[in-house]
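Action item from last meeting closed. Structure (94 res):
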């Protein structure tokens, strides 16, 4: 895996209900580098998303698909994979 970006900051999570929640994120964007050109290699997002204001944020939204808009305006849909706030990518929006 080749690290493309490591992003940290505070963004806005939109829950399935439409509720918007400020949340911190620490995510890495990586790409398969097994000899594939940069344009065609599979990209992956991993890391954590959590709320400093709501200690139950991860548990409340566990395995529910939500959207994170990062500080730079890019967005992706994700879900929490575990109670530590680790995420899985559902869909990269851009």
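Sequence:
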């Amino acid at each position: 895996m080749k690290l493309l970006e490591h992003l940290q900051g505070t963004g806005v999570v939109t829950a399935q209900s439409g509720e918007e929640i400020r949340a911190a994120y620490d995510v890495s964007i990586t790409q398969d580098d097994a000899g594939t050109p940069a344009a065609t290699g599979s990209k992956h997002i991993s890391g954590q998303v959590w709320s400093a204001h709501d200690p139950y944020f991860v548990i409340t939204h566990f395995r529910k698909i939500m959207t994170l808009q990062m500080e730079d305006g890019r967005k992706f849909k994700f879900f929490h994979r575990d109670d530590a706030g680790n995420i899985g990518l559902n869909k990269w929006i851009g």
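Note appended to the action item: The chain has a mean pLDDT of 91.
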